[in-house]
Structure formats: C-alpha cells, structure tokens
Specification:
Chain lengths: 515, 279
C-alpha cells in the first residue's frame, strides 16, 4: 500500500513537473536539413524554409493536432451563415521586426497581391475568393464566390505567410534585397545566416503575446551528412533532430539514449501519404484486378516495421487518417498473396514485366522498392526496378513513362486541398508529378470531389468524401502504402516543442528548456 | 603444357589463387542449386545475426534476406561483369594497339592521342558518368568498365607490336607478299599473347572492383544482387549489423586477391626468362 502511495506521489510529482511554469531563456540547438535556399517564406516554401522561417513569419491562424484552427495573428474570426464571408479580428499590438506596425492592410497586400503572384498552391485556393478587404486596421474580410469547405484551413504559416507591405509594395519581389534579412511578425527575429554553417534567430522582445517566446535563441546547425547529424545529437551539439534529419535505421539507436524523446506528431497538417502511382492507361496496371492484386500482394506492415521503425500507419486509402473527412469504412487490403494470385489468374495476367520506379530519396526508399518487388514476385508479377536520379524520376513521371512509381505527397489537412488533385480527371496533364499522374478517369469521382469541396456543412462533406473514398479504394487508381511517420527526436527537457499540426515549423513559440 | 603448369605451380601463391578462384566459380555456377530461392526473398526476421541459425549461417540483412545466398548470386554478377567487360576491353584495345604499333606514323600518333584522351580522365569518374547517363543496368556497367579499361591494353599491345615489327620474320612475311592484316593476325599478335593474358587476369580483378564500387554508390543494376550492392546497402547499418558489409567485403577481397595471384603466376609461367616484377 505504502509502495503504491509513493508511486502515486511520484506520478503526481511528475505530472506537476509536466505542467510546471515555463523556464525563460536558453538556446535551442537544432539541425536543419538540407540548408534552405532562402528564408523568405512568401517566395520559397520548401520543407527546410518552412521549418526555420515558420518562427519568423506567421499567418492569421495556427492549427492544433486535430486541425482545429487556433488564434495567431487573428485573435478571433467569424463565418457568415451562408459560408461566404469570413471576418478576422487581428491583434492590435503587433509589430513587424523592424518596428513598423502590422495592420489589416498588410494582410490584404500579402494575400491579394504578393502571394497571388508568388505562391501557386495558395493561388489555387484563392480562386474561390471574390474580394479581400480591410474595413479598419484590425479587421480583414474575405468574401468568397461560393462556399469552399476547406477555406479555414489555408491560414497556416507556410500556406499564407504575412509579408510586410511597407517593404515589398511596388518592388520586384524576387530581387528585393530585403529577402536576405527576412522581416516577419513571429516570435523570433532573423539575426545571422552563415551559409554552410548555421542560421541564428533571436527572441522577438516585442512579441504581441505576453511572455512569449521563452527561448533566447534558436541556432540551426547546417550539417550535410546524415551520419554526422546523428553524431551531433549523440555528442550533445544539437538538442533537436526534426523529422527526416537522420536515416530511419538510426532512429532507434538514438531514441534509446538517455533523456531522449521521440514523437511522430506535428505532421498532421501535411499528412505525408505514400503510394505507388499505377499507370492506369496501359499495360497490366490498366486492369483494375491487377491493381487490386498489387494491394493484396504487398506486406505493408512489414515495410512499416522493417523500414520505418514501426512509425506511421498502413494507409487505408487515398486520404490520410490525420486529414479531415478520413474514413476507414472502405475495403481493407490485407497482405493476402492467395487473393492476389486469384485476381491475377482471373484477369489472365501473362507475366508481362512491369517497370517499378523507386523514389530516389535514399536508402529507405530503395529498400522499400526491393521489398515490394519481392512481394510482387511472390504472387507471380514480374517486376523490373528502374533506377534513376531525382531529375530522371521527375521526368519519367511527368511524361507518364512508368508502370509503377513510388511517391509521397502532402495533404494539407483537407481532401479538397491535397487529395482531389491526384484523382480528378481534369487534372490529367503531362508535365507535372503532383497531379493525376496515374491517368485515372472516373466522372463519378470527379463529381463527388467537386460537390464535396463546395458543400457547406461538415456532415455533407463527410458523406461525399466517404463515398469517394469507398469508390477509389475499390478501383485502386494508385497503390497506397503508408501514412509516413517522420519522427522528431529531442532531449526530453525541451518542452512543448511539438504542440501543433505543423510541429517544429511553428513550435518554438511555445517551447522552453528545463534546466 | 606440362611445362607451363610446372612453372605456374612453382609460384605457390598462384596455386592458392587458382584454388580460390575455382571455388568462387563453383559457387557462382552452383548458386541456383545451392540456394533455389531468390536472394531477394525475405526469409527471416531482419538483422538475424550470423551463426545463430543453421539455415542462415551468415545471418540476414535489413529486409531479412539471406546473406549467404546473396553472396553466391553476387559471385555470378562479379564474375560475369569481370569477364565480359575484360573481353570487351580487349576487343577495343588490341586492334587499336596493333594498328598503331604496326603502321606507326600518323596512324600511331592519332590512335595514341585518342588513347591518351581516355587515359587522362580518371577512370572511375568516367565510369560513374557513363553509368549515370545510360541508367544503371548490367549492360551499361559492363560497357562503362570496358570503355575505361582498354587504354592500358592498347599501349601494351602497341609496345609489343612495335618491337616485333622490325623482326626478321616479319620482314620476311612482308617480302613474301602477305597483306598487312594477315601479318598482324598471323605473325605479330600471336607473339603478344602472353603479356596480354597476364594483363587480362589483372583487368578482371580491376573490373570486379569497379563494379563493386559502382554498386556501392548505388549505380549497380537494381535487379542484380551484387557484392558491391550488399556492402553499399549495409554501409548505413554498419553499427548495428557488421556482418552485412563484412562477408561481401571478404568475398571481394579474396576474389580480387586470387586473380592477382593468378596474374603473377601466369607472368612467371609465360615469361620464364623475365625477372619477376617488383622483386
């Protein structure tokens, strides 16, 4: 009994420790991989840029792990009954890092002028917007042309970063010298960037949220070699290894170290989803039964355990389980070689060789292609792996010169933003590896996606998306693999680093280091 | 022949090398019988340590594939690449060297400058570029290795031909009205065969190393299990699983060593009057 009490007391102590007052001060040493090409997030939105610049730039909202919007630059917002008018109330004490006040005019400039020109992904979403206006300095009104369900999901920092109007208005955005010294509204200011060595951000003392941020500095280490990055953590040079900075097979060894925590959270907004494109136009992959056989033949649990350290989930279908309107009420494709063989026999597969393109992103993906080839060999499908570099891979996909090809893409929280693009027939066009590359053409699916994007209520959207997922999973236009788990590895005394749907990308606002 | 064997076997290293090579050849030929399953097949849990299960004496790799079966099939790839690319290199190098040496003059100049052009480019770098351009496959690898390794053959043959060119029996052949082609093929080349054989045995070894290096860098044929591939794939897990790079490394070492020893022995046997190089 006494023992149980002490355990309980200990547990209580631990839990109070967890909710302890944040500690002020300190420096976070973090790996950044690869070195970003630029930190001006309005112009460049690749992964490493978002990770560093996400501490400098902000948008109107941020999102929790359930993708529910939370206040950021906007302290509150309202949506009209008809779902056409979105009104945001901004914080009134926000300053840019150069001291100029941040106002609604900056929002209008950023969304309506700057990003419309520089940000293709946002531009597509803004096609639903009729007007963006600023009735006063702290109010912004977005009027839509028609209902657009995912609209509240596009106010993430990497999707709609606020850029300073007083610096960029009327200039040549891409060549503005200010791009080298980014000015945002975020909790950290840009201080120094020594190319090939490090990026230093320091605390924004005038940040509009009282008391935040807690850290004094963030020091991003540029270390080009994966093994050296692991060593940097092991020797205590860095305290945080964001997702993807060490090779998968090193994760377990590092995770076993003292005072080391691992989380695969903080990717919900992106929902990295991996699959194999199956060329629906020609060859055996044009036959639905062949594609279903591929799904049954693959041992995806094995791939997750052996190649991804058990992180991530086997994908149920085209939508990631962290994306809104996901359903698991679809045909389940378990590892079942017998079923695969039966399907192949039924279609009369003649042993024609299919070409498989691995994703040229390193060892894990290469091994994965080998494992899938072996899975398929065992049910009698002849597979030839075609090796290629990144440029060749891009080109082959854009030219539809493949039978099966590994890939993974982000979903941005909503099927209308990150899923529909890969399956609707209007998105079949050579020249891109992010559209409907497989050539799947189904009018019913087109209609469902179109209706679901503009349906007003969440229930309506759920019903339509459930239907579309069921149809797609039955047709297997692509062979879905895993919802990838990208582990963030950090010292356990770094607290509250990953609390949102984009994790480290905007995490240092709340993070603190316990002594 | 017996004379040849006597001289060869007087070099004990060469006999050991020959024995090793015979073993490697046997393993390569018998691989499908010894290991009927594909070396890519995932047979056991990943990272099974060596000597822990009788059925998989050398353990399994990151995907649970049998290492010893991979070694056996890798021997096929290594020997195939070594032999075919050497033959291809000889087919390029011998004619060029023979023409340059026999005719001399501007033909010699032109062919030798052409050869030097290839010699000045670092051979491994050139091989990487060639394989990368033509997409990694067994054919492109063999072609790349052949293209980077023929210049020494050409130079060797040219030197030999040059010295044979002024021999009396060649002059006699010219006087008797034989065509240049006949003289090169019948009179000159047969007398250059000994140094070519010695060089070729060393070239096979170099070709095996080149193929392994290319595979190590991820430029191997992705559908062929080769030793270099096994080491390349194991490099990243070397701290967890030493055996994945160790055994294929030993295989490469022994095979290349065997070929070098054989080369020495052949040199002794074919050029009995020459002093041993390096001694």
């Amino acid at each position: 009994m006494l023992k149980r009490l002490t355990t309980l007391a200990a547990a209580l102590l631990v839990s109070t420790a967890l909710h302890a007052e944040p500690v002020m001060g300190g420096r976070a040493n973090v790996v950044i991989q690869p070195e970003p090409p630029s930190l001006m997030m309005g112009l460049v939105q690749n992964g490493p840029t978002q990770m560093v610049a996400g501490q400098i730039y902000e948008s109107l909202l941020r999102y929790d792990e359930e993708l529910q919007p939370m206040p950021q630059l906007a302290k509150s917002w309202e949506v009209s009954e008809d779902g056409l008018t979105y009104t945001f109330k901004l914080h009134d004490n926000v300053k840019w890092h150069d001291g100029e006040p941040f106002t609604a005019a900056d929002v209008v400039f950023s969304a309506d002028v700057f990003l419309r020109e520089t940000h293709p992904r946002l531009r597509t979403s803004l096609e639903h917007v009729e007007s963006i206006t600023a009735p006063d300095d702290t109010t912004v009104v977005f009027k839509l042309k028609g209902p657009f369900g995912p609209f509240l999901g596009i106010f993430e920092a990497g999707t709609m970063p606020m850029v300073p109007k007083h610096i960029y208005e009327g200039t040549d955005y891409k060549n503005n010298p200010a791009n080298n010294t980014p000015i945002g509204t975020g909790p950290f200011k840009f201080t120094e960037w020594v190319k090939g060595s490090h990026i230093l951000l320091t605390k924004n003392a005038d940040y509009y949220e009282e008391g935040k941020p807690y850290l004094d500095e963030i020091y991003w280490h540029v270390i080009p070699d994966a093994a050296s990055r692991a060593v940097a953590y092991e020797t205590g040079v860095v305290d945080v290894l964001p997702g993807g900075s060490v090779e998968n097979f090193d994760v377990q060894r590092i995770a076993d170290m003292d005072n080391t925590c691992v989380t695969d959270k903080g990717w919900e907004y992106f929902g990295p989803h991996s699959w194999m494109w199956l060329n629906n136009r020609e060859g055996p992959t044009a036959d639905k039964r062949f594609r279903q056989a591929v799904m049954y033949a693959m041992d995806r649990n094995f791939a997750r355990d052996a190649l991804w350290n058990g992180l991530g989930k086997v994908a149920a279908g085209p939508v990631s389980s962290s994306t809104r309107f996901f359903t698991d009420d679809v045909t389940a494709y378990d590892h079942d070689p017998e079923k695969a063989k039966a399907l192949l026999a039924e279609m009369g597969y003649d042993g024609e060789t299919v070409r498989l393109l691995p994703l040229p992103y390193g060892e894990t993906w290469q091994r994965w292609a080998e494992a899938v080839k072996q899975n398929l060999d065992e049910v009698g499908i002849n597979v030839e792996i075609v090796s290629t570099d990144v440029a060749g891979w891009n080109q082959k996909l854009a030219e539809w010169d493949y039978d099966m090809a590994f890939t993974y893409l982000y979903q941005y929280g909503d099927p209308a933003l990150g899923v529909a693009r890969n399956y609707i027939s209007t998105n079949i066009a050579k020249g891109s590896q992010w559209n409907n590359v497989e050539g799947y053409d189904n009018k019913e699916v087109d209609d469902l996606f179109a209706k679901a994007a503009v349906a007003v209520t969440a229930e309506e959207r759920q019903a339509l998306y459930t239907q579309v997922q069921q149809t797609l999973v039955e047709d297997v236009p692509a062979a879905w693999l895993l919802e990838l788990g990208f582990p963030t590895i950090y010292r356990c005394n770094v607290k509250d680093l990953v609390t949102t749907a984009i994790g480290v990308n905007d995490g240092f606002k709340d993070a603190y280091i316990e002594k | 022949m017996a004379d040849f064997w006597n001289r060869f076997s007087r070099n004990r290293g060469a006999v050991i090398g020959l024995a090793l090579l015979v073993i490697v050849i046997l393993v390569a030929v018998l691989a499908p019988l010894l290991f009927p399953q594909s070396p890519w097949r995932m047979v056991q849990r990943p990272f099974l340590a060596p000597f822990s299960m009788d059925q998989y004496p050398l353990g399994t790799d990151a995907l649970g594939r049998d290492v010893i079966s991979g070694l056996a099939y890798g021997a096929q790839v290594s020997l195939l690449v070594g032999l075919v690319s050497t033959v291809a290199a000889l087919l390029i190098g011998i004619p060029i060297g023979a023409l340059a040496g026999y005719f001399g003059g501007w033909m010699d100049d032109a062919l030798m400058r052409f050869t030097e052009f290839f010699q000045t480019v670092p051979s491994f770098a050139l091989a990487i570029v060639l394989v990368a351009i033509f997409e990694p496959s067994i054919q492109s690898i063999i072609a790349a290795i052949a293209i980077v390794s023929w210049p020494p053959v050409a130079r060797l043959v040219r030197g030999e031909v040059l010295s044979l060119r002024s021999r009396e029996y060649v002059e006699a052949a010219i006087l008797s009205g034989q065509t240049s082609l006949t003289i090169i093929l019948r009179q000159v080349l047969p007398n250059t065969i000994s140094p070519i054989i010695v060089l070729a045995s060393l070239m096979v070894a170099t070709a095996i190393l080149l193929e392994s290096s290319l595979s190590f860098l991820g430029l191997g044929d992705p559908n062929m299990m080769s030793w270099g591939y096994m080491i390349g794939a194991a490099r990243t897990v070397i701290r967890q699983a030493w055996w994945l790079s160790f055994f294929p490394g030993v295989a490469i070492l022994l095979t290349v060593l065997a070929l070098n020893l054989i080369g020495e022995g052949l040199n002794d046997a074919l050029n009995p009057r020459l002093a041993r190089r390096g001694k």
